[in-house]
Amino acid sequence: xxxxxxxxxxxxxxxxxxxxxxxxxxxxxxxxxxxxxxxxxxxxxxxxxxxxxxxxxxxxxxxxxxxxxxxxxxxxxxxxxxxxxxxxxxxxxxxxxxxxxxxxxxxxxxxxxxxxxxxxxxxxxxxxxxxxxxxxxxxxxxxxxxxxxxxxxxxxxxxxxxxxxxxxxxxxxxxxxx
Length: 178
Description:
Layout: H1 3-19, E1 28-34, E2 39-45, H2 51-56, E3 58-59, E4 64-67, H3 69-81, H4 84-87, E5 89-90, E6 101-109, E7 112-119, H5 124-143, E8 149-150
Parallel strand pairs: 2-4, 3-8
Antiparallel strand pairs: 1-2, 1-6, 5-7, 6-7
């Protein structure tokens, strides 16, 4: 599916979730793990963690964002339609790779936690489904507004910095007279 068409379909499902009859929300969390980059991103609903609680406390990192109960319900519906339940294993995703694991998607829905792991050599159909699920998560994560107070050490920045902590220092200029 083209990215624009996929985004529109996701927006329609999320909109439908917002328009549906409200039900008693339960705590929900979706986490995306990229073992290659040692990255852990989370979306939680407001029933899981309130926005004020999440964003007003200083945290170690800014990887968790809070979304409305309705949007999270819609996201879970999309991920499940993409085949999560078929590939899921009970319990939390591994916290580190076994050398073969590349990415993981973890869902906490009420008191149930399950995960799907993408690994080197997985069947192409499973890989395609996992990519679709991960893309849905990333699209909603990137569209979710979040502010987070984080602690940094001297010379560190809370933002990705490929050059390292000295990036903002003036570069050395060589005169060519060496």
